[in-house]
Design a protein that fits this description.
This protein starts with a helix and ends in a 6-residue tail after the last strand. The chain has a single domain, classed as Rossmann fold. The protein has four helices and 13 strands. By secondary structure, it is of the alpha/beta class. Helix 2 runs parallel beside helix 3. A hairpin with a 4-residue loop joins strand 12 and strand 13.
């Protein structure tokens, strides 16, 4: 039987391939739908200080949502990857101020204000897959698992394509779960949200 790490690696490859096969119009439609669903959620669960991710490769695109949240005056933080496999969150005020950081990620520059993890109200995070228990499959470096443990007060919301929401994915004791998962047409952990 395959080890947990082997199972995770196999699922990572499957999910990367599926996202790579999405057409541009499918990606754009998913980005608009996820923006509308998050904005609807924020009506029921107001949050002013939000951590978001800037998409890489074929991750669900958060740029339309990011633009809208900035226009609405929300305090938005983006993660900055540090050398010791940790994240720090820096505030973004406009796209033009982003720089290319580690792993080719768009990040706020070092002059951007730091946002303490214990002040965040909501964290929107990517994943290659999520399951209906809230477990998340990332790229394997553990940045988000380390970070989420520092922000227990924040509502943790995974964002993914519909096919990335699974009934069950392999997990280990150090893997942290999210509070809910939102896809363009589905959700987990949000019975009252439709």
């Amino acid at each position: 039987m395959a080890s947990i790490n082997e199972q995770k690696d196999k699922l990572r490859q499957q999910m990367k391939l599926k996202t790579f096969r999405l057409t541009l119009s499918e990606r754009e439609r998913a980005a608009i739908l996820i923006k509308e669903r998050v904005l609807k959620l924020l009506l029921k669960m107001p949050a002013e200080k939000i951590m978001l991710y800037y998409p890489i490769k074929t991750e669900l695109d958060t740029r339309p949502l990011l633009t809208e949240l900035l226009q609405r005056g929300k305090q938005i933080g983006l993660p900055v990857c540090k050398e010791n496999y940790t994240l720090e969150i820096r505030q973004i005020c406009e796209f033009e101020k982003l720089i290319l950081g580690k792993f080719g990620l768009a990040e706020p520059d070092k002059a951007a204000p730091l946002i303490r993890s214990d002040t965040l109200e909501m964290i929107l995070l990517p994943g290659l897959a999520f399951d209906q228990r809230g477990y998340r499959l990332g790229y394997g470096a553990g940045y988000y698992d380390r970070f989420l443990s520092q922000a227990p007060q924040a509502f943790k919301l995974g964002l993914s394509y519909d096919f990335q929401l699974k009934s069950e994915i392999p997990f280990e004791p150090h893997d942290l779960s999210v509070d809910a998962v939102l896809t363009p047409t589905n959700s987990w952990g949000m019975a009252s949200f439709r």
